[in-house]
Amino acid sequence: MKTSQSSKLRQAADTYRTILDALEEWVVVVDHNARIFFLNRPYARFLGVNADEVKGKKVTDVIENTRMHITIEKGVAERLSIQKIRGSNMIASRFPITDQGKVIGAVGTVIFHDTYEWKRINSHIKALLAEHEFRAQEKNSQELPTSSHYRLADIVGDSKAIKELNQTITQVASGDVTVLLRGESGTGKELYAHAIHQLSERADAPFIKVNCAAIPENLLESELFGYEEGAFTGAKKGGKAGKFQLAHGGTLFLDEIGDLPLSMQAKLLRVLQEREVEAVGSTSPSPVNIRLITATHRPLETLIKEGTFREDLYYRINVVNVSLPPLRERQEDIAKLAEHFLQALSRRTGRRAPKLTAQAMTALLEYHWPGNIRELENILEAAFFTARDRKIPLSLLPANLRDHTQSELSVVHNDGNVYAATGTLKEQMDRAEKHAIKQALSQSFGNRTLAAKQLGISKSTFYEKLSKHQLI
Q: What sequence ranges are listed for the domain PAS (predicted)?
């Protein structure tokens, strides 16, 4: 029986010897006694042995820290385990060989020669998957939009901060100057990029948006600058125009510019300086005429100090710097924004828009909004679909928002009076006054004239108190 088993293994090993010797992976085959039947040439070279001379030797005498004998004993495969051989941590797998239910040997492979190689290949696989996903999305998406969708009139709010911002945008848009939009995530940078394009002389030309953080690094160059036919494996017949070429004559909006890799920053800088693009695989550059708008939520000055953003590119894109205020600095716009989002949902769904209760509105006004307008929109969308009796009470708002509101108030009595637990009389009165103003604003849904009337003070006095408590 044992002779028959050995004969089968010997026949299989001889058949595949040429193939196994050609592999980069290291392969060893042992019989039921854990003696080596076959060791491929790459593995033998690493071990410093002659592949033919080690035949018949115990695998434990030839390969250190092997578990091939354990695989035979247990008849269970071991996949991708770490095995230290000659000082290196390698990734090995072992599989039992069976015949009619009996274990007659085992095959072992070393797939990665050290953990660094595994990490490198793992990173490469992730990049390939990202590329595949991006290409699939690109293929399934509709035709690339080449026009802007938003105007300055679409921006909701009449706070001092927004009025000043809109005035700046109007002035900037009339020129053909490069603009850097800066602001926290969710403050509306893309919306303002659209508005600048619509107000410019390029309004009838293409508007092309690129999210620098969403495109895999290995695809950025071909996406931005295009490629020629045959430039790389998988390149389309006839090549493909890049975003710069598509935006020719119009506006190119590079969102999340702070996430652009250093290697691409140098190439982008050259294009901006030379005003010409060289597609991947091409030897002749083509001129481009675009207006550039960039945006970021990241501190570019800090990135420059850290060496992850080029200073020369920073000065090239930072011709006009426009800062967008976070929602917490334009509190008086919250009521109007809330109404805007609820009405938009109503139009989209055909359902009547629910109303925020006074408590819920107070919570929105008290909250610090780390996610800005996008967070407000998401919260209201969730409340819209869970509201009953066409009302959005405080209980339908997220717990963190409710908790923040409660922490703002020291003590709230049944009669509605608010008292601070600590501080001088003046400090306590100031806190109570600020809360009363916020309550009036919430109950009047942001209408300052009604809020002043509700408090029994003149509009000018009301504005003075708004300024005093930094509510403007």
A: 12-63
Q: Do 363 and 412 contact (CB within 8 A), yes or no?
A: no
Domain tally, the chain: 3
Return the structure tokens found at 408. 């703002």
| CA angle (382 as vertex; 376, 388 as ends), nearest 5 | 120
> Could you tell me if residue 131 is inside a domain?
no
Is 132 domain-assigned?
no
The continuous run of DSSP H or E covering 39 comes out as strand 36-39
Sequential pLDDT tens for the chain (472 residues):
555 666 666 666 566 777 777 777 899 999 999 999 989 888 898 899 998 899 999 999 999 999 999 999 999 998 888 888 888 888 889 999 998 889 999 999 987 776 666 677 766 666 656 655 655 555 544 444 555 677 888 889 988 899 999 999 999 998 889 999 999 999 999 999 999 999 999 998 999 999 998 888 888 888 898 887 766 666 667 678 889 999 999 999 999 999 999 999 999 999 999 999 888 887 788 889 999 999 999 999 999 999 999 999 999 999 999 999 999 889 889 999 999 999 999 999 999 999 999 888 888 988 889 999 999 999 999 999 999 888 999 999 998 888 766 555 444 443 444 444 455 646 666 777 788 888 788 777 777 887 887 777 777 778 888 888 877 6
Backbone phi and psi for residue 172, each to the nearest 5 degrees, phi listed first: -65, -40
* Domain C-terminal end among 278, 299, 325: 325
Structural domain includes residue 125: no
| Degrees, nearest 5: CA angle 168-327-413 | 145
From CA 384, how far away is CA 356, in angstroms rounded? Answer: 10
CA gyration radius for the chain?
Answer: 34
Query: In terms of domains, do 303 and 352 share one?
Result: no
Residues 27 and 164 in one domain: no
Same domain, 361 and 272: no
**Which residues face 110 on adjacent strands?**
26, 92
Check whether residue 175 and residue 306 sit in a common domain. yes
Of 277, 301, 325, at which residue does a domain stop? 325
Inside any domain, residue 29: yes
Residue with the two structure tokens 């009165």? 429
Distance CA 110, CA 90 (A): 7
